[in-house]
Write a structure and sequence with these properties.
The protein is an alpha+beta fold and about 240 residues long. It contains six helices and eight strands. The structure holds adenosine-5'-diphosphate and magnesium ion (MG).
Length: about 240
């Protein structure tokens, strides 16, 4: 019996070491790939600024730049993915985090004709979520950004808080285009995107972070009407 346990233990350690190695490899690769990408996008931008006349070449250069930025986004998201679970957790003042992020986003969204309304019904003073603040911000940012992407000609996003059993429930409700069932079934899949410049990694990262925090991510949507994303996180008294 004892030997069986020892084997499982050493298997676990080997697996952890392998993952750590993979993470380092990914970080190194990201760094190495970023440099040539920066050079490619930089040169393209410079050539554009130098006043290319030919419309076709101009368009091509713009595509090269766009695709470089997309590749950089993918690398950044993969890095976030590889770090989930390794990052330290602590007591996060979730009310402060929500206020901070909504304030930052509110300003940006105004420029796209989107009103962000805070409906923080719940008294969160003295309550904490045990987790990593940066990662919790990341979830929230991604979900609100998706809501904004679904409203290209403007609309409204309502962020509301409530309690469901031992969870804090943060609803992000948009008045955007919504999504059909075929899309909704796949939104958590890595690299699944319906956007020309999407990475398809936003919700895959969010989902993994939420799970890592012992929470849940739920979606409800109706095409043409809008979407409600619900982030559930375990909350406790400080
Ligand atoms: P990306 O934003 O790069 O496409 P995500 O993983 O963040 O990747 O989202 C995956 C897909 O889920 C999106 O391409 C979109 O089709 C769908 N989606 C997510 N949030 C919403 C929303 N609020 N309204 C409509 N569709 C959404
Ligand atoms: Mg996204």
């Amino acid at each position: 019996m004892r030997q069986v346990q020892d084997i499982t233990e050493s298997k676990k350690i080997a697996e952890a070491q392998r993952l750590a190695q993979l993470g380092r490899l990914l970080a190194d690769m990201a760094h190495e790939v970023n440099n040539p990408l920066m050079i490619i996008s930089g040169r393209s931008e410079l050539t554009l600024l130098e006043g290319v006349k030919d419309g076709k070449i101009k368009d091509t250069l713009k595509i090269i730049m766009d695709q470089c930025f997309l590749a950089k986004d993918i690398i950044q998201s993969l890095l976030k993915y590889s770090r989930i679970g390794k990052i330290e957790k602590g007591d996060v003042d979730i009310e402060k985090t929500l206020e901070l992020i909504t304030d930052i986003l509110q300003h940006h969204l105004q420029l796209s004709n989107i009103v962000l309304e805070k409906d923080f019904k719940l008294d969160l003073s003295g309550m904490v979520v045990v987790g990593n603040e940066k990662q919790l911000q990341e979830i929230f940012m991604n979900v609100v950004r998706n809501a904004a992407d679904a409203m290209p000609s403007g609309g409204k996003i309502t962020v509301s808080t409530s309690k469901e059993k031992k969870f804090l429930k943060i609803d992000v409700i948009d008045t955007g285009e919504g999504m059909p069932k075929e899309v909704m079934d796949r939104i958590l899949e890595p690299f699944f995107t319906t956007k020309p410049k999407g990475t398809g990694l936003g919700l895959a990262v969010c989902h993994t972070i939420v799970q890592e925090h012992g929470g849940q991510l739920r979606y409800a949507s109706e095409p043409g009407k809008g979407t409600t994303a619900s982030i559930l996180l375990p909350i406790e008294e400080k």
